[in-house]
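Hi P.,

Sorry for the delay on this. The queue was packed all week, but I finally got your sequence through. Input first:
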Amino acid sequence: MPAIADWSPVDLLPGVWTGLLGAWLATALRRWFDPVPGRVLAVFTAVLLILFGPVLFGGKVLLPLDGLRGEPPFEHLPPTEPHGNFLQGDLIQLVTPSLAAVRAAWADGRWPLWNAQVGAGMPLLADPQAQAFQPLALLGAPLPLVRAAGVTAALRVLVALVFGFLWMRRQGLSEAPALAGSLAYGLGGFLLLWLGWPIANTAALLPLVLYGAARCDDPGGRRDGLLLAVGVLALLLGGHPETIAYALGLVLLFLLDKVRRRPAGLRNALLVRAGIAFVVAGVVAAPALLPAAVYVPKTLRAARLHVSSSTGSLAQSWLPIAAPNAYGNSRFVEYWGFSNTNEDASGFVGTAALLAALLAVGARRRFPQEGLALGIAVLCLLLITPFPGGSRRLLLPLSLCLCYLGACTLERFRMGEIRRRSLLIVAAGLALVIAWGYLAHPHPADPDRMAIFRFGWLRWQLRFLSLATLLLVMAVSWQRRGRTLAATGVAAAITAELLLIHGPANPPMPRRLAFPVNGPIEFLQQKLGKNPPRGPRYRMAALGEALPPNLASLYGLTDARIYNPMAPQSYVETTAPVTVAWKGEQPEWGHPDDPLYSRMGVRYLLAAPDAVLPLTRVYADRDASVWELPGARPRLFLPAGQIAIPRLEDSWITARIDLRRRQRLASSLYQDGGWRLLVEGRPRPTATDPGSFLTARLPVGSWRVDFLYRPSAFLWGCVLAALGLTLGAAAFVPRPSHKTFRNTAFPSPGA
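Then the structure:
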C-alpha cells in the first residue's frame, strides 16, 4: 500500500469549509436575528480549534479507525497513539456505512430509499440512524466521507454553543453567565461523548429550537416562525427517536409556560405562530417520519424491547453526574458502573456548573422559567434511575436544565444577590459528594485498579471546585464589573475542565487508517465489485468476528450480514441457522456448509488465515483467507427458464425473462412491503417465501420485469411534504406590498 503524505494543502479544506459555514451563520444571525458578539465568537472558535484543529486543518480523521485492528483482515495494522476509543466502534461499523449509502444515492440522483449493500437489503430512509435528510450531516457532503466526519462534529458543537448562548440571552441573562451556560452545555458529556452518533444531532439542535420558541414569544415578523419551523424540522430529522421525543417535550413545556404567562389577549398569537411552525415542520418531515413509523416495529430493536435491562444502584445512576470517573472509564477499558461511560457520564456539565446549579435551588428571586427548569431537572433525576421505566437519555434535558440553572446563579451573583455563607455550604457539600464518589467506589474485585486515574480526577475536580468557589467568594464584595470578571473566570474554569475530561473521548486518527485495502479486500473487490461479471449480483460474508458486518459496504462489497438495531427481524430469524453467536446486536456467522448461504447469494466467505473449511480456498495470505461457495444464487433466479438482468440498482431492478411454463420468480431480496412488481409496465402482486425473500408468480412468455422499491409511506409523505411547504410559504413568506409592485413592475408614465 503506497505511503500517504503526513500533510498537504488539501487538508485545510475541512477547516475552510467549516469556517465559511460558521461565518455565514454569524452573518445571518446578525442580519435577521440576534448577533453573537465578536469576543464570544472568538471563544467558540478557540474551543473548536482545541477540539478539532488536527481534524479540520491537520489531515487527521475523526473516526475510531484504530478499532479496525484485532480481527481479520486487519490484524496487522500498526497501532496508533493515542489509541482509538473502543466505545466508538459503531461509528465505523454502523453510522459511517449508512451515511455512505445515503451519499451514494444522492450522488446517483436517487432517493435514498434502499440499502442494497447489507444483508438481503434493508430500508435506508426508514432507518433513522442513516440521517438521510439531516442538515448537519448533509452539510459535510462536499467533502470526502472520512473528512466530513470532523466537519459534522464541529458543526454540532458550534450550533449547540451559538444557540445555547442566544437562548440564554433571550431568557434575560447577561453575556458572561450566558457564555458560561452555553459552554457547559456545548462541551458537556451528552454532546461530546455521543459526538459521532445521530443522538448528538438532538443535543446540538435542542438550543436552536428553544431559541426559535423564545423568538416567537415576541410580537414580530414571520422569520421567527420560520426559524422555529426550520429548527423543529432539523430536530425531527435528527436520527434518534427517543431523544427527539424528550427534546420536543422540553421545548413544549417551555413554550406552554410562556403562553401561560402572557396576557390573555396575546396568548392566541403565540399559540398560532408556534403551532403553525410545529405543524409545518412535522408535515415537511413526513417523507422520513412515515416510512420509519411503518418500518421500525418490524426491526430487531423492536423485537428486543421486552428484554429487561440490568439493574444497578442509585449511586451508579446519579453519582457520575457529579463524579464521572468514579467508576473508572470505558475509554481505558476499565469501567464498573451501571452501563458505560457514554451512558452514565453524559450528564456531567462541569464541577463549577454543577455548583452553580445547586445554588439555584435556594434562590429567592428567579429568572424567567428558572423554576420550570428546576422542576424538569428534578423530574429527570428521578426518571434516570436504573429501575424499570428509567431512561439514561433523560440526561439530555437534565444537562440543559443544569446549565441554565447554573447560568441563572451566575447572573444573580453578578447582581450581588449571592450570599457567601450559602456558597461555602453548597461547595463543601459538593466536595464531600465528589470525594465520597471517588474514595468509596473502587473496583469490587481489585481496589487498586484505575486508582491513579480515579484519584487524579478527584484532585482535578476539587481544584476546579476550589477555583470557582474562590472566584465567587472573593467577588462577593466587588463591584459589578469585578463580579462580571469573576463569572467569566468561572466560564473559563468550566471550559478547561470539560476540555480536559471530554476532549480525549474523540481522538483524531491518522489518515493512513482510513479503510485500507489489503490482499483479501482487493481480491473480493475484483470478484464482487460493481463491474466484474459475477458482481454485484452476488454477496460475501465473513465467519466469526472477521470483517465486522456493514464494513464491507465501504469497499463496494455486499455483505449478507447486518449489524444494525434496525435490521429486519424477519431476516434475523431467516439467518438464525448460520448465526452462531451475538456480540450485542452484531451477529457472528458460522456453519459454512449450510445451504442457506447459497440461497442468499453468498459466493465468497472471508475467514481467519488459518481457517479450515469444507470449501474451496481461492485466496490466502497472512491477513485472511477467502473461500468460494458453489451454486450461489443471483439476486433474481428461476427454477427453470432464462433470465437476464440488464439493470441492477439499489431500488430498481430490471430483468428479461423467458418462461416456457408458469412458475415463481425467486429472489434474495428482503421484502418489507415496499417492493413493487411491474410486468411489461403493469403492476402484479408479490409474495414472500417461507423466510423473508421477495417472490412473484409469472405467466408463460417473454417479459420485461421491473422491481421498484417505492414504499407507500414515502409516497404519502411526499404528498404531505408538498402540502406542508405550501402552508409554510403562505405563513412565513412575506407578501409583496402594492407600492413595491407598482414602482417596480409598472412604472408611472412620467418615470
